[in-house]
Please model this.
Amino acid sequence: MTIKLPSNVIQFAAGNTGLYENFVDYWNHYQAEYQGKNKDYVKTVSFAEKESALNAMILREIGMAAGVDFTAQPIERFVSHPLVCWAAGNIISQMIDAVLPSTMVEGMSPIVDIRVAGYGESPVFDIKSRDLFRVTKAGRGMREAEIQKGFIKQVTLYPEPHMITVGVSLFRVLSGQESLAEFTTKALRSIESQFTIDIYNAFATSMAALSSDATTGLLASGWSADTATLLSQRVSAFSGGAKVVMLGTKRALAKVLPDDTNTRADYASDYVKVGYVRTINGIDTVEIPQVADWTNPFATLISDSYLWLIAPGTDKLVKAVLGGSTMARVDDPYASPALLQNATFTKHWVTGVVTSSVAATIAL
Model:
């Protein structure tokens, strides 16, 4: 299995990338085993064995980065060592960066273009005009038609800091009583979840603001196959003939049926197997995975009340920027009355609708 690491991770590791490659394999194994995703990972070693080996590797890397030997003295003597605190936080942050860019693309890939920028950089996106030059009928005595000029609009996105602060006991971590591999996975999932939510919110807000004009609008209420065909034609026509797909959650796509009230589905059909039809009126359907609302237990965030028609082969609707490395800061162990250390991880990102593409919405 070939593993490609980001340049900042390779630079931090100073060529010794074994830990980070093993974490990528561990993360792929986690996704395959617990999330049912099709991932490439080493299958000859169990997940539990990988976690145990990974924790041992992390402790060795912390010791090497801090220049200490954890076997030379009782482990509690290293809890307040400033370099140990620095090494622990930054090694975890680089493990997060080892998988963060690629894992965020999944699920939202039809609508988002993710860029990675350096720390403090603000990428500029060009929005090119999607219209054509106007062709006019001319007379033989005319030298030229009405002058036209295409312009490019530029939009700058400024990555903003997002933080996670967690209380940890460095003694329990260094003594192996708490799993750093499990902790890193949870931090990674937390960042991934919030980033996905931000992408969806930017997309859904812009799609809800579309015009509902009967003649030229791109927002329609109520499902019908005819409405889907009408809107897909508009999107395709103004996207240079690009192929249009229909996005939605599984529950929303389950409502996508032919207008014929006598429609039947047999046991071998896609509707029975996956919960929705794969294609209707020549429009392929694409499921958007549902996202948990962690602030409201057992609620979900992505609306089941909308279907979206987009042309994914054109300019992506949402632009997202990840800014720089994940930054880590671990407080002094004696700053807290409970002798816990606050570990703060900061990741810069921003999302926004920056596009010349056309899309449509069906409110169910």
